[in-house]
Design brief:
mainly alpha; Cytochrome Bc1 Complex, Chain D, domain 2; two-stranded antiparallel sheet; globular
Length: 161
Amino acid sequence: MKTSSLATLAALLAAASMTVSTAAQAQDAKAGEKKVQMCIGCHNLPGYQSSFPEIYKVPKIAGQNAKYIVASLNAYKKGERKHPSMRGIATTLSDQDMADVAAYYEQLGKAAAAPATVGEPPADIAKLLAKANCESCHGKNFSTPIDPTYPKLAGQHADYL
């Protein structure tokens, strides 16, 4: 009797923890707006250039898919993506914080839709894009990735790409 009671209790606790885990992933853009203080110093300044560890324009994250932002933050947190400042920030964020911040930045780009097609790039760039087959993952206009964990490339700074 004790064994079956313990097994039932263990099953209930496991189910409850999954419910809590799922609830923690619910995205809240309003809550995210209150959590982006560490982000706005770089990502909300038009044309801002990072100077460490190398010089490049900071990526535009407004309008990126929330799943991509969360995946990126987790990669920084785990050390899979290398940038000391981003890693330092990501390690302080909970899963809920990441979901909220991602929801906030995703909704920032909803007002300005990317054009259905993009202008013709210079010949050398067109050759590189064809060779890399970027459209196969990022979409015809580089703004409609086939998977929400892939970034939108349209409008991104060339030196960041």
